[in-house]
Amino acid sequence: MSADRPGTKAKASKLARKDKLSVPPFIQRGKEERSLFHTTPNPAKIPVFNTPTTMSGKGFGQRQPTKNDKLVESAVRYCHKRQPEALDQIFDNLPVKLNKQVLDGTVAALEKDIDSLSWLCGYFASEINSTSDNDKPYHPITLLSKLLIKSGMQPFVDFMPYIGCRISILNNDKFEALPPRVQAAVKEAFDVVETSGEEAQRINDALLRELEV
Questions:
Q1: In 3-state terms, what secondary structure has residue 168?
Q2: Which of these, 131, 125, 133, lies nearest to 83 by C-alpha position?
Q3: Which phi and psi (to 5°) does residue 32 adopt?
Q4: What is the pLDDT of residue 138?
Q5: Which of 9, 45, 128, 150 could form a cystine bridge with 133, CB 3.0-4.6 A?
Q6: Beta-bridge partner residues of 159
């Protein structure tokens, strides 16, 4: 058993203080900061910064929306609100490739919302150019698109709305497989190029009746 010589403890204490002071400031500062979080041995009170919940809450590890995603989100919102002027700001100012990507994304997002999807067809067929056009008494292109969609045809894939209030059938096989009454209603609407207000209203009413079947 050894005994400490007089003055040994005091010397050791001085050396310890000297060693502590010799630690570079930035390391010492780090120790002081960490000590703020470790004032108690209770693990429940020690902050944890790397848990999945905390990271998820801050958005770490999540896919950030792209420009395309944001444009699609805006286009869908404008369709829901029936705002053609706002859609103009999107589709009139995009390169062709990006324009198609945004249109495809918008159509996919509206897949289960037939009313908004058929309204979008009316917009692309120039049937709806301004918000006031939403109040017109009839929208034959919109109704015709709705009839085709409800019959199983996909807009911009099986049929295409065109400027000038026109619709072009792209998938003839699919169209010819539709019920005869649906084909008849569509063909009658196609046959009328220039109509009076009364004739347009009659076609509009006929399409509405077909949609109610």
A1: strand
A2: 131
A3: -65, -40
A4: 83
A5: 128
A6: 155, 169
Q: Which two tokens stand for residue 90?
A: 């999107």
Q: Is the pLDDT of residue 14 over 60?
A: no
Distance CA 147, CA 65 (A): 34
Each domain of the chain, given as residue ranges in start order, spans 67-212
Question: What are residue 160's DSSP bridge partners?
Answer: 168
Residue 18 is encoded by which pair of tokens?
A: 């000297």
Q: What is the pTM of this model?
A: 0.63
Q: Are 122 and 143 in contact (CB under 8 A)?
A: no
Torsion angle of C-alpha atoms 182, 184, 187, 193, degrees rounded to 10 = -110
Sequence letter at residue 174 = K
- Per residue in 79-117, pLDDT tens? 999 999 999 999 999 998 999 999 999 999 999 999 999
How confident is residue 207, by pLDDT bands cut at 50, 70 and 90? Answer: low
